Amino acid sequence: MSETRKNKKAAALSYDMKTNMPPKLTASGKGYVAENILDKAKKHNIPIQEDQTLVELLSQMNINENIPEELYQAVAEVFAYIYQVDKKL
Predict the structure, then answer these.
(1) How far apart are the C-alpha atoms of 23 and 5, rounded to whole Å?
(2) Which of 21, 27, 60, 71 could form a disulfide with 12 if both were Cys (CB 3.0 to 4.6 A apart)?
(3) How far apart are CA 64 and CA 48, in angstroms?
(4) In the chain, which stretches have pLDDT less than 70?
(5) What domain count does the chain have?
């Protein structure tokens, strides 16, 4: 595995506006798993935002765990970006 591939990390978030619950971490991984997460996002036209610091913090969480309050601002910025991308499409 190349050094770049080995160091690649990705995380996926979900948010259901109907429940008024915090966003959840739905996937996280590095290397091939990260590439798989990114490939699936591209395949389903899910916008991708790169934020290494946020991914690093999210990678320390458990899958299906709600985002902690400390990350609300950063995650809100990600969802605002996605909203803008969706609006343009």
Answers:
(1) 27
(2) 27
(3) 19
(4) 1-6, 89
(5) 1
